[in-house]
Amino acid sequence: MSTATLQVRVAHKRAEAQDICSLELVAANGGALPAFTAGAHIDVHLPNGLQRQYSLCNAPGETQRYVIGVLRDAASRGGSANVHDALAEGSVLTISTPRNLFPLAEQAPHHLLLAGGIGITPMLAMAEHLANTGQSFALHHCNRSRARTAFVERLATSPYSDKVQHHFDDGDTAQKLDIAGTLQHAPPGTHLYVCGPQGFMDAVLNAGRTAGWPEERLHREYFGAAPVDHTNDGSFELEIASTGKVIKVLPDQTALEALHAAGVDIPMSCEQGVCGTCLTRVKAGTPDHRDQYLMPEEQAANDQFLPCCSRASSTRLVLDL
């Protein structure tokens, strides 16, 4: 988790599409902001007390500002609504320094960027970097309709506009994204990057795996957790390896909540199993993985888990703490 924080001011707030706004953030003291790399995000401390992660979508070389894009999500727990309703130009916010869990593979001969909806935000910074460094790439942006497509003008007027294609659910069949075909025609060694709604990401990643793409060339970033059925959740125990202390996790309690209640300090951020901040090593026992951060082979190893969302299949997990 990024421990350093910054004070920023909302310099500009702009409607980018239906239910999507962008915020341009500048240092409250007027100075430069820390540099960031393409794919990075910041933790934003909102006025209602919530903390949310948003990808930086401006060019990585810029240190005078950060730009984020936020969708007003009908299923939101209050974060996106607070951005849309409570923040205005001049608002001062606390944010983390940037961190990157979705970096570009700089050695790749070609980069295929597939974005669904608001998942375009990290791809914008990637496209800016790839274009500025002369690397080979293509960007596809899928949306329900043109009215819901953010940053259309920016992409249309960019120096890399010829590498961008838009696809609309309400458009004719010919312009819709053929995921399998797009992957099939990608140059050898291409790295794929995907961000967007769960169903879109699953379709893209499954197509890649079906086509035989190795996991190291499939990169993804989730911006929300998939629904989880808690009906059959039971209790289990956590043992702290260094002290032998045993902590019980109740059926209606997360492992992270139990650890914090017992005075064990685990860093946290998204609390949805998306960001990886609370990743904890497991020395014994079998986790019930419910995150969207670890890759399938990492989950299968059962030597780490995310206590904010994952539980235990065994009666006890021994944590390397």
TrEMBL record:
<feature type="domain" description="FAD-binding FR-type">
    <location>
        <begin position="3"/>
        <end position="105"/>
    </location>
</feature>
<dbReference type="InterPro" id="IPR036010">
    <property type="entry name" value="2Fe-2S_ferredoxin-like_sf"/>
</dbReference>
<keyword id="KW-0479">Metal-binding</keyword>
<keyword id="KW-0560">Oxidoreductase</keyword>
<dbReference type="InterPro" id="IPR001041">
    <property type="entry name" value="2Fe-2S_ferredoxin-type"/>
</dbReference>
<dbReference type="InterPro" id="IPR017938">
    <property type="entry name" value="Riboflavin_synthase-like_b-brl"/>
</dbReference>
<dbReference type="InterPro" id="IPR039261">
    <property type="entry name" value="FNR_nucleotide-bd"/>
</dbReference>
<keyword id="KW-0408">Iron</keyword>
<keyword id="KW-0411">Iron-sulfur</keyword>
<protein>
    <submittedName>
        <fullName>Vanillate O-demethylase ferredoxin subunit</fullName>
        <ecNumber>1.14.13.82</ecNumber>
    </submittedName>
</protein>
<dbReference type="InterPro" id="IPR054582">
    <property type="entry name" value="DmmA-like_N"/>
</dbReference>
<dbReference type="InterPro" id="IPR050415">
    <property type="entry name" value="MRET"/>
</dbReference>
<dbReference type="Pfam" id="PF00111">
    <property type="entry name" value="Fer2"/>
</dbReference>
<feature type="domain" description="2Fe-2S ferredoxin-type">
    <location>
        <begin position="236"/>
        <end position="321"/>
    </location>
</feature>
<keyword id="KW-0001">2Fe-2S</keyword>
<keyword id="KW-0288">FMN</keyword>
<keyword id="KW-0285">Flavoprotein</keyword>
<dbReference type="InterPro" id="IPR006058">
    <property type="entry name" value="2Fe2S_fd_BS"/>
</dbReference>
<dbReference type="InterPro" id="IPR012675">
    <property type="entry name" value="Beta-grasp_dom_sf"/>
</dbReference>
<dbReference type="GO" id="GO:0018489">
    <property type="term" value="F:vanillate monooxygenase activity"/>
</dbReference>
<dbReference type="InterPro" id="IPR017927">
    <property type="entry name" value="FAD-bd_FR_type"/>
</dbReference>
<dbReference type="Pfam" id="PF22290">
    <property type="entry name" value="DmmA-like_N"/>
</dbReference>
